[in-house]
Amino acid sequence: MIDDLVTWLQDPAHWSGPDGVPARLSEHVVYTAVTVLVAVVLAVPLGAWVGHTGRGRWLVTGANALRAVPSLGLLFAISMLVGPLIQSSLAFTLPSIIVLVILAIPPLLSGSYAGVESVDPAARDAARGMGMRGPQVLAQVELPIAMPLLLSGLRSATLQVIATATIAASISLGGLGRYLIDGLAARDLSQMVAGSVLVALLALFTDGALALVQRFLVSPGISGRRTRVGPTDVARLGSLRAGVSSTPRGTSPAVSPNGSD
Amino acid sequence: MSWALDHLGEILSRAGQHAWLAGIPLVLGLLIALPLGWLAARKAWLKGPLLSATGLLYTIPSLALFILLPSILKRGILDPVNVIVAMTIYTVALLTRTVADALSSVDPSTRAAATAMGYGGFARFRAVDLPLAVPVLAAGLRVAAVSNVSIVSVASLIGVNQLGYFLTNGYARSFATEVWVGIIACVALAVVFDLAIHGIARLLTPWARAAEARS
Prior knowledge:
- The structure holds two protein chains of two kinds.
- In chain A, α1 packs across α9, α2 (21-53) runs parallel beside α5 (90-117) and α6 (121-129) crosses α7 (134-167).
- The model of chain A is unreliable at 234-261 (pLDDT under 50).
- Chain A is built from eleven helices and no strands.
- Chain A has helices at 2-10, 21-53, 57-65, 71-82, 90-117, 121-129, 134-167, 177-185, 189-217, 220-223, 236-246.
- By secondary structure, chain B is mostly helical.
- Chain B has one domain (2-214): MetI-like fold, CATH 1.10.3720.
- Chain B is built from ten helices and no strands.
- In chain B, α3 runs antiparallel to α5, α4 packs across α5 (80-104) and α5 (80-104) crosses α7 (121-152).
- The model of chain B has no long low-confidence stretch (mean pLDDT 89).
- The chains are: A mainly alpha, B mainly alpha.
- At the A-B interface, α4, α7, α8 and α9 of A face α3, α4, α5, α7 and α8 of B.
């Protein structure tokens, strides 16, 4: 298996042209980036609003129930519904993108909701007491405190999209999944193995990069820099609360007593 | 609807196959995650590395794992054992953190009381820590069960038999009804798993039921 893999990867024919590794890799990255971006724009404000106002919690519950729908089935069903309506080359790409966005929404929605919802009401009251208005409270207090859970949601959404974009090759989407699906059709094991290794590496690398982003974006007053936040971490809600109440300095430097100097 | 009724036998037999492929890994994964999670909860220095390592396993896309495992395990690509192993890996990845959180959620004073009553080592783990961890464990198992049912259907792309067959076959024949039957059957199976785990957890926590009855 390793020999096959090395031989396949060393073949220069596999590194150029529209079916080469650079082209397929960049397709996969572009699909993932576009999808996650659209899903963030749709889901994060909504989740933050639900967490902030406490209204519309059924949206989060409903989105979570959606996770029980098999992604392969959703992919096929949506492409059969939407595909015939589109008369251009987008007929294969657009349904896949729609499904990928749908799949990225639940983790982002519940991450941003749970993050904002977990904010200690005392911290929110303190911010209001200091004269902050609604949007300021959201931007300077609630979102920084929600950041760890929000970014955990972003990480699981991104991984979900990378994995499902691979499967979407079976409905003619490009990307690294092509090697897996085409290799399967042609009974070309080395191509399948090479594609699988590349996809797995892409997923690992992306998750590592997002973990670094998480380290930089989460305020040290909240993370405590002692434990790292994982994608399925729910138990941190408790420690977040503790972090907020024990380190009031962490909420915002802009409101420190000598901030007006 | 009539298509589903005509093919009821086939749907049920594939659902049975699907339930095995998703369910056995749930049990195996829990058995592997229990000692790992226990270690993570007990030894602070092991917690970070253990949870990161198991978390990394979950990042591997399912189709890639289904294709890589036959070569690693030296088995035919259609062998269901590959799917069982892959799903066990995912279950361990999800549950190790849950087990660690569940065991940490046990009140230290309860544990101290058990120690004072003479419980020690494994006996205390079995009789006190583990039963008290059941509600959190069950929540994690329900997430893993739903995720397993969804991922198993992907294995139909490489030809392993289960409910996912209706998805690939329906798509290949441009027959939407069959795809929808496959989706509904998968969701129904996920609901059955969810209810079963919920029920078992209730049976295992009689004190929670007693508290419910009183209030």
